[in-house]
Amino acid sequence: MLILTEAQVREVLCFEDLIPAVRQALMDFSARRVMQPVRTVLPVNQFSGWFAVMPAVCGSVMGAKMVTFYPKNVELGKHTHLATIQLFRADTGEPLAIMDGRLITEMRTAAVSAVAIDHLAAANVTRLAILGSGVQARSHFQALSHIRSFTDVRVWSRSPENARRFASEIGARVCAAEEAVGDAEVVLTLTSSTQPVLCGKWLKSDAVVCAIGGVTPDRRELDNDVMRGSVVVESREAALREPGDIVKTKAEISAEIGELLNGAPLIQKPGAVVFKSVGIAVEDIASAKLVYDKIVGL
Predict the structure, then answer these.
(1) Are 180 and 131 in contact (CB under 8 A)?
(2) What is the model's pTM?
(3) pLDDT averaged over 10-residue windows placed end to end, the chain, 298 residues
(4) Count of beta carbons in the 10 Å neighbourhood of residue 262
(5) Domain boundaries in the chain?
(6) Count of H helices and E strands in the chain?
(7) Residue 128 neighbours by CB under 8 Å, 6+ apart
């Protein structure tokens, strides 16, 4: 059985391969070719964190990601999300590998967003707003460069210093949140906020919003006006239970992204199209299989 560190995962995992892999995983999920429950989350209240288990069976493999979220790790200079993934053969149950899951979580989250934006946004979009300046902001900018050519990128963050550093890295400009969103055709929200950071009144009527933070019921990034548009998710079951943006607003879900990728039409509602991502296990297992196949094939 292989044991793979984050450094070993980094050597073989790239967005060129990962984006198609998660696209297929999302299609398989919505076509009911995947066995997957909603993740089990165990609060670790004494340390202000939580521990979650995310299992799935997909094709020739099955596995589970064990992931932690500790927001206060920022104060310690540590990652807020940490994880390991164990991969098994689906036909015999034999363990194949244990691998670090932090980088996989970082990259597959951005790859899923790239898949969604590639399907939902027009081919000629050029204006991108990024609300957030952390790990996911950087990963998303890298992933989106594989599906669109954004020439006007604006950044806002609750930390002006972090916003300036991130914007300098990617050649963007720092703006207030409302100005950053302005006439942006694609808007990313990548924060851990418990209160909305994006208001619907700021958005272009045909904007595509990709909301990544706020995956627990007590957190949200989008106000009620944003959530009145067409809402696309990875999993209806998970979306109705987990993210505050949907749980608190009782937003109506229009479609799973896998359904749209499989050819279903999106019923358009007035307002922006929102892709609300929470992260589901099949994305991690498909990513882990990609890593395993590359390592074994070397």
Answers:
(1) yes
(2) 0.95
(3) 97 98 98 97 94 97 97 91 97 97 98 98 97 96 98 96 96 96 97 93 96 88 95 97 93 97 95 96 98 89
(4) 13
(5) 2-104+282-297, 110-279
(6) 10, 15
(7) 144, 148, 150, 152, 153, 154, 184, 185, 186, 187, 188
Fold of 2-104+282-297: ornithine cyclodeaminase, domain 1 (3.30.1780)
Fold for the domain defined by 110-279: Rossmann fold (3.40.50)
Q: Is 109 exposed, middle or buried (CB count within 10 Å of its CB: 0-12, 13-18, 19+)?
A: buried
Tokens (6 digits) for 103:
């980088």
Rounded to an integer, what distance in angstroms lies between the CA atom of residue 119 and that of residue 241?
25
Residue bearing tokens 């939902």: 120
The phi, psi pair for 227, rounded to 5°, reads -80, 0
Which pLDDT score, from 0 to 100, does residue 219 have?
A: 87
Question: In this structure, what are the phi and psi dihedrals at residue 262, rounded to the nearest 5 degrees?
Answer: -85, 0
CB neighbours of 293 closer than 8 A, spacing ≥ 6? none
